[in-house]
Amino acid sequence: MSGLLLLYSILLICDHSLLSKSLRLVDYESLSAITSFLVISRGLELSGIFNKIVPKIVELSGGSEIQLHSFILIIVAISSTVIMNDTAIFIFIPLVVIISKILKINRAKVVTLTTISANIGSTLTPIGNPQNVIIWRTFKIPFHVFVWNLTPYVLGWISILLIFTLLTSRKQSVINFTIPGIRIDKNLLTASIILLIVDVMLVQFGYALIGIAITLAVLTIVRKEVVLSIDVALILTFALIFIDFKELSVILLSANLCLYQKTFPEIIIFSAGLSQIISNVPVTVLFASINEKIQWLPLAVGVNLGGAGVVIGSLANLIAVRISGIRLRDFHKFSLPYFFAILSLTLAIIWL
Hints:
Order of helices and strands: HHHHHHHHHHHHHHHHHHH
Shape: globular
Helix content: over 70%
Radius of gyration: 20 Å
Number of strands: 0
Number of helices: 19
Number of domains: 1
């Protein structure tokens, strides 16, 4: 986050009118949608439903920590190809937090690996994450062509993640555990599920502002603790990220800053590296503004790869860290080694 703020401060010096422009350019529809899902996720968590799901997850995984982690990561990755990585984070992170508490496993590791898995799975399809949607629409790529070209990278990245999981997990069984008595708040659970469905439909048709109003009103009536626990700092971070960075790209280009490289690996390295500073969605918008000068595939590979590094690299990372409450250094303890591993693998694939 500090990198994004630093860049934005520099741009404010270059253009004093940028602040007022930015306030007008914030994507309030996207901000409202993410805020709604954040509040609903909190409602599902407080309802107690995740505690009831844990035994089934452990049973299906076979009982060992390695199998448990692998099972969760595969389910999250597959889900993210369809429901978007940010939505997957809202759904799965509260669940894995409960699992880590009950089974006494490393919460930071399971949260980080789950987040990475969501980012990987979302890479496969044009609808998997915001940056893919931007690339898909800007470059007008057929759906099947997009999936076909990204498949080798996704398979390689998920394989490395599973190997990484194998090397860092304990081998003993976690099947013997007890779940504390948790009462399901049926009213809150029902309200949260209905609101989730309603908000998805409203966002789909461009009425996210109405969705956030309905969500806040209903949950205030059902259980006001959900609304009072809203993470204001995270929402402010979203507001900064959802600024239309096309305006910023004009300033950067006018300053003769090189936003692209000509070769395939250079585009990957540059976009992945810049994502570590200003997040991968703004980087995608910056590159998309000069789409006639770059190739879409290395851009897609680079910005999606960039989401696996530092926490600012992907919006999903920020959401996961905030929801789970893990420390940044604990997140980076697992995310950075993985990032450099898949960066090396990706460049090796291209070289071969």
